[in-house]
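Appendix B, example 12.
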Amino acid sequence: MVQRKIIIDTDPGQDDAVAILLALASPEEIDVLGITCVAGNVPLKLTSKNARIICELAGKTAVPVYAGCDRPLGRELVTAEHVHGKTGLNGPVLPDPQMPLQETHAVDFIIETLRAEPPGTVTLCPLGPLTNIATAFNKAPDIAERVQEIVLMGGAYFEVGNITPTAEFNIYVDPQAAEITFKSGTDIVVMPLDVTHKALVTPDRNEAFRNLKTPVGTAVAQMTDFFERFDKEKYGSDGAPLHDPCVTAYLLRPDLFSGRHINVEIETSSELTMGMTVADWWGVTDRPPNALFIKDLDADGFFSLLTERLARL
């Protein structure tokens, strides 16, 4: 498998942390050029801190981390401490990071990297609101055609919303940024709630993390112990869905996933359905497809991959 150059754009978040760890544990297939942080699950100060905590937990302190946009393009910031805790990484007790935050703004790093690398060789992996990505596209329109692919976690169709009745959190926080991204002409792969809700951390799967008996395995088990209480109560499920690691797993094992190439539009004007991903799953409009919308995954294969890779750290 050819090594993919990626930029992880993130708002950690326990599931973001697991997605980052999976990427850092897979250097043969994935070259993490940098981690760019955005406000989302918690404010920017915490997301940029948490990304560095995760790099240090993985022993990958050479990966540069950049702080980006601290608020959505046109709305007040909505955060999710009710899910992730006040720090965003509640569960394990992890030390404050010692590695520095880069001085360059995340948006400038995205632009500079896409201009410096050969066209079609850098994949953007947004795990949170799309503010940094849209801001980069607005500031430097030439970079959109240089992106190899955007593989993002966000949206929903069959599973409807998790922050409002119709909207998934990442898209709802900055629907204007999502609209810009989906209309950019870039190849997009979407990991909506429809697939991530099938990546459930059951007790046996979480015990497999704990049984790694490593700092990473223990921390991941403690993270899912913490945030599963919210999801189990809300959905009545057997465990917490690991949303964001689906993005990394797709890069490593796309054969674990299936979906359809369809049109996806973002609602930006109605407060009733703000941030809804209007997915034309059944092809009932003449709007051209603009995204591969993933619906299913091999959950056992997903967790086998995740456990095997985390064991490397």
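The longest strand covers residues 30-37. The two ends are 21 Å apart (CA to CA).
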